[in-house]
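Before we proceed, please read the two lines closing this message. Report back on whether the structure tokens fit the sequence:
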Amino acid sequence: MKQYFSFQWHITDECDQRCKHCYIFSEDNCKKLDQMTWKQMKETFYNCLDFCKVYHRLPYFYITGGDPILHPDFWKLLGLMKENGIPFTILGNPFHLNDENCRKMKEYGCEKYQLSLDGMRETHDWFRKPGSFDITLEKINCIKKAGIRAVIMTTVSGTNIDEIPDIIDTVAVHGADVFAFARYCPTSEEKDVGIEPMRYRKLLEDCDRKFKEYEAAGCQTYFNKKDHLWTLYEYETGEFQIPKAAEEGMIYGGCNCGNCHLTILPTGDIYACRRVQNSKVGNVFTDRIADVWICQMEQYRDYTKFEKCAKCELLAWCRGCPAVASGQDGNFYAADPQCWKEVSA
């Protein structure tokens, strides 16, 4: 049975927002806005399909930006996806969504559309753009009416951690199909997520209780436990147990970097993970992705290098978030700063 391989494909930097925690604009707010030409997009698409053919994987695309709908060839790209029968998710803003656009996205094969909520109204609009909190909630129904699953994603930091339970209530009331959160990855001069390890564990505990209450009440929102530290939490609570049949040296879960995921930027640059600032491994315009995967990507698959995780019994299932760890000093294999587990040397 073939496994999926996901490509997070940024087709443009063009965006209606300048979010305070956005990695695209964090290093240089006056940066040139890059975007691929139609010719480059086709080359990139077939480079990705070539990779999947070589490694017997099924392609899955997360089309994003910036806001991908602002690319002049956005609809042509979706047509190319449909022509080749490739499923995809769109990660974008709510501002250009309407019934007609959502209907067209569905016709082209869009399965999910992901929006962001990074706090309640005052906090979210401070992070992103005045008025975007209300329009984001409004567009959940617009997406769902078209038959596309509406996903809400939250980036957790010390600024908004206390608001996460209220965000959960809000997305449940508005009928989001999926909710998940991930931690802020430090960029530029800010090198700290602003969350102590035990405070983050308390957040997981509070969210777990709330998720279960909603599930018991028949809530249709799927609460995706995206952060790999959920594995540690559920290991401690007994909900996750190490399988008796697990083989030594095998990787069964945790971070997909180096396993089944790559990011492609509008410049063509290939990143092992977009949230890892120094993880460029090639360029789709000059490199065959299939070659990059067995050469430059090897450095992200040496699991013995994890300074803390390599000593932990959960190495094959967790490994926290290397992107958050590398945000502090550029070390992909450093200890996750929010991991509360004590590991003996």
The first strand starts at residue 3 and ends at 10.
